[in-house]
Write a structure and sequence with these properties.
Length: 419
C-alpha cells in the first residue's frame, strides 16, 4: 500500500499542525460538541458567529518558518464536519459562513515561505446525515445507527471532497486522515478505494496510517517513541504528534503547557530515533495565535536558528551515546545534544580516533578533547578516573551555554560512519 517517497519528509523533521474550526469559538477543546452532546442547532451558534478576521495565513507561515519548521498541516475538515475549504458537496464551509477559503489561503502562504503543504481530513463527520450515530457522535443515545446505504452515501461524499482538496489547491504534499476505531474501519471508510483515488490524483503525496491500512508513515500521538519504529522488522517513517497543552483546538482555560526546552528535547528525541515531530497550535476563535503559542514558537525558533543542521537532514547515529545525551548524525557530522550539563568532562565511548574537530554548535567555539589510556591507573585523587579503551573525552566549559538545549558538533575523521 505505501508507495510515496519520503525523502523531503525525512529531511524536514519538524512541522506545524494547525487545528482551527467552529470549536475554536467554544474555546474548550476540539471535541466540545461530542463531550457536551450538543445538538446541531446548539452547535450552530458558533456557525452564526464564525468570523476569522484575525486568521492570517502569512503570519502563520512566517511563525512556522521562524520556528525551524519545514512543513505545515491544516484541518481542512474536523470531526464536526465543518470545512475550511470551498466544497460543492456541502454548504457547511468557511466560504459560506465567512466568505473565505482558508485552505486556499493556507496553501498559498505556506508555499510562499518554502514550506510543504499538508491537509488534515477527519473520517468522522457529525454533520453529515449519512454518518453513523455511534459512541463518538454527539447524538448518541438519541438515535440508532443509520442504514448501510447512508454510509455508502457518506463514502461517496468523502471521495468527492478528497478529489476537491487534491485538485483545487495546487501541490499537496501530505494527507493526514483521522481516525479508525472499533466498528469504523477500512471497510466502512472504503479505505482501499480512497487510497486509490489519492494515488491517482497525487502519486507522490504522503498518506498517514489512520485509514486502518498501512500508509506511508505512522503517527504516534501524545507520546514519544524511544527507539526507531518498524513494521514487520522494516524501519518506517514516523511522526510524533504533540500539542502545546493537551488540546488540539483552542482551549482558553487549559494552562498545562509544555515549555520550549521540553519541546526541543522532544524534537531531538524524535530525530535521534529516525522520526519527525509535528507541533500543534490552536488559533483563537478569531483565528490568531494566543500569546503563549507565539512565545513558544519564537523561543524554539531562537534555538533552531543556531542548531538547524543538527535537525534538518539529520537522523539516528550508529554510535551509542552516554547517559543524558542524545545523538543525531548528518553525514560525517555527529551532534551531541546534552540533556544534562556535565562538569568539565564528557566521556564518549567508541569515538577515540574518529573525531577531527569538536565545537559548540551555537557559537562555533572549539572544544578540546583527548583519549585516555584505559590501562593507566590514576593515583592522584585530583585526576579523572580512567575510561575504557576507545573512549574520547571532551573538556567542556564549567558554565552551561544559555540555550534551550546545548549541542556539541563533532566532525568525524573519515567517511566510515559505523562503530
Amino acid at each position: 500500500m505505501p508507495t510515496a517517497s519520503g525523502g523531503w519528509f525525512e529531511t524536514a523533521r519538524f512541522g506545524l499542525f494547525v487545528h482551527f474550526g467552529l470549536y475554536s469559538l467554544a474555546a474548550r477543546h476540539e471535541w466540545v460538541r461530542s463531550r457536551e452532546a450538543m445538538s446541531q442547532a446548539a452547535y450552530d451558534r458558533y456557525l452564526e458567529r464564525f468570523d476569522p478576521d484575525l486568521f492570517d495565513a502569512r503570519e502563520l507561515a512566517r511563525a512556522a518558518r521562524g520556528a525551524g519548521m519545514r512543513y505545515a498541516v491544516l484541518t481542512a475538515k474536523h470531526h464536526d464536519g465543518f470545512c475550511l475549504f470551498d466544497s460543492s458537496l456541502t454548504d457547511y464551509t468557511s466560504v459560506r459562513a465567512a466568505g473565505r477559503d482558508l485552505v486556499a489561503e493556507f496553501a498559498e502562504a505556506m508555499r510562499a515561505e518554502g514550506l510543504r503543504v499538508g491537509l488534515y481530513y477527519s473520517l468522522l463527520d457529525w454533520h453529515h446525515p449519512g454518518f453513523p450515530v455511534d459512541e463518538h457522535h454527539p447524538l448518541r443515545g438519541s438515535e440508532g445507527r443509520r442504514e448501510a446505504e447512508d454510509l455508502a452515501r457518506y463514502r461517496s461524499y468523502m471521495q468527492g471532497q478528497i478529489r476537491e482538496l487534491l485538485t483545487g489547491y495546487g501541490q499537496v504534499d501530505l494527507l493526514f486522515f483521522d481516525f479508525t476505531y472499533p466498528g469504523m474501519g477500512p471497510e466502512q471508510w472504503g479505505a482501499i478505494e480512497l487510497i486509490e483515488t489519492v494515488r491517482e490524483l497525487r502519486p507522490d503525496i504522503l498518506v498517514n496510517d489512520r485509514l486502518g491500512v498501512p500508509g506511508d508513515y505512522v503517527t504516534p500521538e501524545q507520546y514519544q517513541p524511544d527507539r526507531p519504529l518498524e513494521r514487520d522488522g522494516v524501519p518506517v517513517l514516523w511522526e510524533a504528534c504533540h500539542t502545546l497543552n493537551g488540546s488540539w483546538g483552542y482551549d482558553r482555560d487549559n494552562h498545562d503547557y509544555k515549555d520550549p526546552s521540553q519541546l526541543v528535547r522532544m524534537l531531538i528525541q524524535s530525530v535521534s530515533c529516525g522520526g519527525n515531530l509535528i507541533l500543534n497550535v490552536g488559533p483563537t476563535g478569531r483565528g490568531s495565535l494566543d500569546q503563549r503559542a507565539r512565545d513558544t514558537l519564537r523561543a524554539i525558533g531562537e534555538w533552531s536558528a543556531l542548531h538547524a543542521r543538527a535537525v534538518h537532514g539529520a537522523g539516528p547515529s550508529p554510535f551509542r551515546p552516554p547517559a543524558s545525551v542524545l545523538y543525531t548524525q548528518r553525514g560525517r557530522r555527529l551532534y551531541l545534544h546534552l540533556l544534562a550539563w556535565p562538569f568539565n568532562h564528557l566521556h564518549l565511548p567508541g569515538l577515540a580516533g574518529r573525531v577531527r574537530y569538536a565545537q559548540l554548535l551555537h557559537d562555533g567555539s572549539e572544544i578540546a578533547f583527548h583519549e585516555v589510556d584505559g590501562a593507566r591507573h590514576e593515583h592522584n585523587n585530583l585526576a579523572p578516573p580512567s575510561q575504557p579503551p576507545g573512549t574520547l573525552t571532551l573538556t567542556l566549559p564549567t558554565s552551561r551555554p544559555d540555550v534551550l538545549l546545548p549541542v556539541v558538533e563533532l566532525f568525524l575523521d573519515n567517511e566510515e560512519l559505523h562503530p
